[in-house]
TrEMBL record:
This is MFS transporter. It comes from the Bacteria. Coiled coil: none annotated. GO terms for molecular function: transmembrane transporter activity. The keyword Ligase does not apply. Keywords: Membrane, Transmembrane, Transmembrane helix. It comes from Jiella pacifica. It holds the Pfam family MFS_1. The chain crosses the membrane at residues 45-68, 75-94, 100-116, 136-155, 167-185, 218-245, 257-276, 283-302, 308-327, 347-365, 371-389. Residues 213-401 form the Major facilitator superfamily (MFS) profile domain. InterPro entries: MFS, MFS_dom, MFS_trans_sf. Signal peptide: none annotated.
Length: 401
């Protein structure tokens, strides 16, 4: 595939990320608050709807990969957008019916559709020149910058339309956006992802998955990707609850999540160039440092500016850590191995993220906001040690000079 087709596909996937991907910030910013509203007694389960969303992403990872192997990326991604649309509609009806468990199940369905969205970043590398792959991933994730605006603004403008179910309007909006995404994804150009890179045998056989997984570079990339995403999800899921618990209006939480998601995806316009210039190891390390800085800001106080600055640093850390780790994973498999490797990676990733979002609510209720940030600190340090060892093994340096 030529560079022009690779760029075109990256732009189509970025547009889909902006539209269909808006479901994620809506789920994250409202799931815990809606859960709190729906629950009468045990508020420790308030973040279970967000957990349901993340469980759906984890459960959908392997089926999404298998479906796309069977029917192709274009039809597979369109099917995923349709699932998001149906899940959003059901979530809205669950809120109108004031049914907590129906809402959790609907969020799980939205998550299953979002599992397809998570693979947009991998699809951008299909058949693309190797020196463009990191930039293609960045272009796709840059679409999330627009999702960061679309999702929270949709929540803000639809609040009150279906009172007392304040968030029902937002999920009706998610349903509409998922349906629009079906048409956007129909513009994706199907490519032969099995085309070999120059210097690689075209018929290179696929290795067993176990052989791919034991590579030190894959293990490091998986640890840093899972660690960055899980820490971000754990702290971010609890942030809206902490903001409201500290006496701030819930609108502060919505806009805090908006700035957070913008920080997650906004740097994607240049993250690929940073990776090309400084290397994956340095970019991942920079992301981990940003995550550590965010925990420090959260621990320093509970003013609005501290919540918002901490959320921005949390998003920036996720961007560098996750994109860098995703690009590193792409180094470890052959084109013929992409489906099973990507599927396993996202299964491990979102299973951990689902667990972290579930524990977020429980830790917040039982131990508080400060403890949540203290729990995340050692995980970031372990990831930092792992990327330092990988850099040393690969002959790279984390520090300039």
């Amino acid at each position: 595939m030529g560079i022009r087709t690779a760029r075109r596909n990256a732009l189509v996937l970025a547009a889909a990320q902006a539209i269909v991907g808006s479901a994620a910030p809506v789920a994250i910013s409202t799931g815990g608050l809606a859960g709190t509203w729906l629950l009468l007694e045990d508020k420790s389960l308030a973040t279970l709807p967000v957990t349901g969303f993340n469980v759906g992403v984890a459960l959908g990872a392997l089926p999404a990969a298998a479906l796309m192997r069977a029917i192709g990326r274009r039809l597979g991604f369109s099917s995923g957008a349709l699932v998001v649309s149906i899940g959003g509609m059901l979530a809205a009806f669950a809120l109108l019916a004031q049914s907590f468990w129906f809402f959790v199940a609907s969020m799980l369905l939205v998550g299953c559709g979002n599992a397809f969205t998570q693979q947009y970043r991998f699809a951008a590398t299909d058949g693309a020149p190797r020196d463009y792959q990191a930039r293609a991933i960045s272009v796709v994730l840059a679409g999330g910058m627009f999702a960061a605006v679309i999702g929270p603004q949709m929540v803000n403008f639809t609040t009150g339309l279906f009172r007392p179910a304040e968030f029902a309007g937002a999920f009706f909006g998610v349903s509409i956006l998922g349906f629009v995404g079906v048409f956007v994804l129909s513009r994706l150009k199907v490519v032969d992802a099995a085309v070999a890179e120059p210097g690689e045998a075209p018929s290179a056989p696929a290795r067993p998955l176990s052989q791919i997984l034991v590579q030190p570079r894959f293990l490091t990339a998986l640890l840093c990707g899972v660690g960055s995403y899980a820490m971000m999800s754990f702290v971010m899921t609890g942030a809206p609850l902490a903001i409201v618990a500290c006496g701030h209006p819930q609108e502060i939480g919505f806009f805090g999540i908006q700035w957070h998601v913008m920080a997650m995806f906004g740097p994607s316009f240049f993250t690929g160039r940073l990776i090309a210039r400084y290397g994956k190891e340095r970019v991942i390390a920079a992301g981990l440092l940003a995550l550590l800085a965010s925990f420090g800001v959260f621990l320093s106080g509970i003013s609005v500016w501290q919540f918002w600055l901490g959320l921005v640093l949390l998003g920036l850390g996720w961007n560098f850590g996750f994109i860098g780790a995703t690009a590193m994973v792409a180094d470890t498999y052959r084109p013929s191995e992409k489906g099973k490797t990507q599927g396993f990676h996202d299964l491990a990733l979102f299973t951990t993220v689902a667990f972290s979002s579930f524990m977020s609510g429980r830790v917040f209720v039982t131990s508080g906001w400060e403890t949540m940030n203290l729990v995340a600190l050692p995980i970031a340090l372990v990831c930092m040690a792992a990327i330092a060892l990988e850099a040393r093994r690969a002959g790279a340096r984390l520090l300039p000079g």
